[in-house]
Amino acid sequence: xxxxxxxxxxxxxxxxxxxxxxxxxxxxxxxxxxxxxxxxxxxxxxxxxxxxxxxxxxxxxxxxxxxxxxxxxxxxxxxxxxxxxxxxxxxxxxxxxxxxxxxxxxxxxxxxxxxxxxxxxxxxxxxxxxxxxxxxxxxxxxxxxxxxxxxxxxxxx
Length: 157
What we know:
The chain is of the alpha/beta class. It has two domains: 4-89, 2-Layer Sandwich (Uridine Diphospho-n-acetylenolpyruvylglucosamine Reductase, domain 2), CATH 3.30.43.10; 96-152, no CATH class. The chain is built from four helices and eight strands; from the N terminus they run αβαβαββββαββ. The longest helix is centred in the middle third of the chain and has 13 residues, at 50-62. The radius of gyration is 17 Å and the shape is globular. The two termini are 30 Å apart.
């Protein structure tokens, strides 16, 4: 386990907040939808932007910490948590940016599917209500009529 004063150093480089085991909101922050999952990370970083994510990854690499990434949704298996490691929580990074001219949408990693649906009617497809997104495997199945999303993805940051 990493020393408490060491993980506190990470907090100084974040725009978002770092929740540590001694913080009052720690138990609520580590709770997931599946009540059978009880993991205790060394810290939970609520990232505000890409720079925060980069700082967390660099910190974890330097200190040989296990990393779990938690998006805006949930994992029934508790994959967004880890014991004695660093949880990178993207839930604050939930922006959806629509460009109707290029018919593109930029979606941040903390979005839930409901937030990520195109808000501009010119970008919607008939099957938009049936999407299922799997961030871990990089696949998206909007239905048999449309096919997987990965050919439509232009970039991943």
